[in-house]
Amino acid sequence: MNRPRRKKDSVQSQIRTNTAEFEQILCYMQFIDTYIGFGVFARKKLLKGQFLLEYRGKLSYNHAETDSDEVFIYYFSHDNKEYSIDASNNMCLARMINDIDRYTKANCKMVKVVVDNQPRLCLFAIQDISKDTELRYDYGVADGPWRKQKKNEVRPVVFAQPSTCIKINLGTVVASRF
User: Fold this and answer.
1) Cα maximum dimension of the chain
2) Cα–Cα distance between 53 and 102 in angstroms, integer?
3) What is the tally of structural domains in the chain?
4) 141: in domain
5) Domain assignment present for 1
6) Mean pLDDT, rounded, for 140-155
7) Domain that holds residue 105
8) Does residue 95 sit within a domain?
9) Which one-letter DSSP state was computed for residue 134?
10) pLDDT, tens digit, for every residue of 24-53?
11) Rounded distance, CA 65 to CA 62, Å?
């Protein structure tokens, strides 16, 4: 079966114009239970390799610039510098996607994307995702405290590194892996 390929300029356009309205076309947030809290679900079938969401927020070049409670801060490295994106004051759906656990496996992946020389963090589907399926990705923190807690305990949020980099400059995707 032939699968439609995503167009490089289409990905750049989607990342540049990613808004709350765009996110609502693809996904919705729903309360799961008191252990997990909220999750993000596919509003329609999503295809492997498809751009899903951007982790939007305040981009900082070092950790000292962050001034929130660190619940929605994603730390990462780019060009040998430490960065963070603080989504505490941004209602992007990407900040609500849960980590995998022993009962689930990842169906999307956080990817570092460079648009106009600015690093951005975006989620891409790593497999076809059926409608109404929860989106999950591996935070990359094997010893995270939420992975050790029992089902009736509240889990803290910890953020991880994107494992792949896509560079987008002037409409060209230089590298990608899914």
Assistant:
1) 50
2) 24
3) 1
4) yes
5) no
6) 63
7) 8-55+91-173
8) yes
9) B
10) 889 999 999 888 889 999 999 999 999 999
11) 6
- Does some domain include residue 74? no
For residue 19, the domain's CATH number is 2.170.270.10
List, in sequence order, every beta strand (DSSP E) within the chain.
27-33, 37-42, 51-55, 58-60, 73-78, 81-86, 98-99, 108-115, 118-125, 136-137, 164-169, 172-173
Strands 164-169 and 172-173: antiparallel
Q: 89 Cβ partners below 8 Å, 6+ apart? A: 57, 58, 68
Burial class (CB in 10 A: 0-12, 13-18, 19+), 174: exposed
Instruction: Please give the single-letter amino acid code of residue 41.
Output: F
* pLDDT tens track for 12-28: 666 666 666 778 889 99
Q: What single letter denotes the amino acid at residue 171?
A: G
Cβ pair 86, 58 in contact under 8 A = yes
- Contacts of residue 101, Cβ cutoff 8 Å, sequence gap at least 6: 146, 147
The answer to whether 158 touches 120, Cβ cutoff 8 Å, is no
Cα-Cα-Cα-Cα dihedral of 50, 166, 138, 26, to 10°?
-30
**95 backbone φψ class: left, alpha, beta (φ>0; ψ -120 to 50):** alpha
Question: Is 147 in a helix, a strand, or coil?
Answer: helix
Amino acid letter, 54: E
Structure tokens given for 174:
């230089």
CA distance 101 to 142: 10
